[in-house]
Design goal:
- It is built from 7 helices and 6 strands, in the order E-H-E-H-H-E-E-H-H-E-H-E-H.
- The protein has 197 residues and is of the alpha/beta class.
- It has a single domain, classed as Rossmann fold (3-Layer(aba) Sandwich), CATH 3.40.50.1950.
- The radius of gyration is 17 Å and the shape is globular.
- Bound molecules: flavin mononucleotide.
- The site of flavin mononucleotide (FMN) has 16 residues, from helix 2 and helix 4.
- Flavin mononucleotide (FMN) binds next to helix 2 and helix 4.
Length: 197
């Protein structure tokens, strides 16, 4: 069977750590990761990650592409992938995807995933939302994409920010049928401390 591949996009919404976590969770698995980071994400990353070392983060991926490299493998539908996770997904990238702009490699790769009817999961991050944001989410959903805002589930007994990020990203990867062994599941590993009233 051909090697399985997933595209990870990191765009310039706050939450660069979600993208890093996706790469970390995928690294031990037998899935090739193809990474593209937008220009704005490089900026948000530099604000959010202390002493950001982009080369170290890129080293977590199997293949790394410049966002300007519109001729990269992931820009073509003939390059088979399981699909693409954008973590986090900015409202700008969401808008470009919803309107088929394909104006850089990240949005082109997402466009290709949609046209090939592969899995697209967008960890959209903005608050509050205006009508255009909501309409773009509707459009992407109608095209078969999955809008997955990284909203924490508080019943998970989250103790650290890292727990919260890990849980959201693991649930997003679940949508590709990728099993993250450490993901606690309701009814299996997770139980209520108290009886419901
Ligand atoms: C510190 C910082 C935080 C930002 N957070 C968000 C955000 O949460 N959501 C969002 O849609 N845009 C956010 N932006 C704005 C985007 O970075 C901006 O719209 C950019 O053009 C997105 O480009 P991209 O989609 O190519 O990454 C933020 C920008 C900065 C500098």
């Amino acid at each position: 069977m051909a090697q399985q591949r997933i595209i990870i996009g990191i765009s310039g919404a706050t939450g660069f750590a979600y993208g890093i976590k996706a790469l970390e969770l995928l690294q031990p698995l037998d899935i090739e990761t193809h990474l593209v980071i937008s220009k704005a994400a490089q900026l948000t990353g530099s604000y959010e990650v202390p002493n950001l070392n982009l080369a170290q983060i890129e080293a977590l991926a199997d293949k790394v592409y410049s966002v300007n490299n519109i001729g990269a493998a992931i820009a073509s539908g003939s390059f088979k992938t399981m699909g693409m996770l954008i973590a986090p997904c900015s409202m700008r990238s969401l808008a470009a995807i919803a309107n088929g702009l394909a104006d850089n490699l990240l949005t082109r790769a997402a466009d290709v995933v949609l046209k090939e009817r592969r899995r697209l999961v967008l960890m959209v991050r903005e608050a509050p939302l205006n009508l255009v944001h909501i309409k773009n989410m509707q459009t992407v959903t109608l095209m078969g994409g999955i809008v997955f805002p990284p909203v924490p589930a508080l019943y998970q007994h989250i103790e650290t920010i890292d727990d919260m990020i890990t849980h959201s990203v693991a649930r997003a990867l679940d949508l590709f049928d990728i099993d993250i062994p450490s993901l606690p599941r309701w009814g299996e590993d997770l139980h209520l401390h108290r009886k419901p009233v």
